[in-house]
Amino acid sequence: MVNKRKKMPKPRQEICSPLKWLCFLVGFIFLLIGLVMTCLGVYLLSTDIKAIEHFLDALINPSFLITIFGAFIVFVGTCAFWGSLRENATLLKLFSFTIFASYIIIVVFAFLVFFTFYTHPDDNISAQSILLYAIKHYHTNKNVAEIVDYVQEQFECCGATSVSQGYRDWLLNEQFVCNSTNPYPERCGVPFSCCRRSHSNDESETAQTNKLVPAMAAFHCWKNVQDKKVQDVESRINTYGCIFPLRQVFEKNAIYLGIIVSIIICPVCLAICLSHLLAKQIDHQRYLLEREARRYERYQRREARQKYNDHYAAVLQTYQLTEEDGGLREVAVPERDPNHKVSYSTNHTNPNIAKNTQPKKKSSSEMNEAIPVLSNTNNKKNPKYHHGHNAL
Hints:
Elements: H1 17-47, H2 55-59, H3 62-85, H4 89-118, H5 127-136, H6 142-155, H7 205-209, H8 212-219, H9 230-233, H10 243-317, E1 321-324, E2 327-330, H11 351-356, H12 376-381, H13 383-391
Antiparallel strand pairs: 1-2
Helix pairs in contact: 1-3, 3-4, 4-10
């Protein structure tokens, strides 16, 4: 009897279910946030379509930045969401890599912000060069104009460079240039955001009789200021540039920026560790399944060989030769090797059989006919044949 091998148990479960569903939940939240941001950015882009002709146009376009950032979050959330749901280690590793790369980009961006305020003004990536570019394109890009107006109103500044005469930087704009060939109504002026908030003309005599005069004067405070001295216009507009107050704000909040970057690293490291751990568990589980499949294939091959050997041995044990028409009949035996066929023939005219067979002398005249025999090997293995031959 063949000892059948016991059924091998299935490999143990290596994937932690709470970890899997935690990564699934994080990815799902990322996916929802990214979809909302992408839809909002696309809507804002559709309402205010502006051609992006320069890299800075993309950086200062809030709707474009929201769309790109939302699409990136959708990609990251999909990797975590689908990777944990389908137990795909590749997507989980991609999620870990993108999260790590995003944190590196944030650190580099913080360093660039610090770098722009302390580089030489002639460099293309300095804060001064960025503001001068915005001044030149004030009327060609609505997003640029809104950002410049917001900065000048919040920090009560005008222009970019000079501390005392920053408003003269607006001469770089073709609509504010002060010459006789300028056809624009803004000639020799500055944007309205350069006007002082507390400007009033209460000292005039007409202001006491007409209350609209201060308001009208404040409304026209930006006109015809480029061809006048600083002392004449400093009561109407802000004269110093915006680089100095922006640098002060950055220096005051630099420590908070560093704290934010340091705090972000905690959830980033946690997300990377959890996703990487789940990916390692999935890889190990796949390795166990593949190893079990290889073992089962080897087991099946051994079982097939064992069954064939048992069947071959059983056929050899039940092999019988019977006398029929003066000859011997044999039972067909399965061949061991398909490339090597062993034939069992009863043809006594075969020269190989005749050469290897030496029949004994007959004791009777009825037994003159030659008895066909098998090869010497089969004669030695067949006791029944020897018994019949001796009886003759």
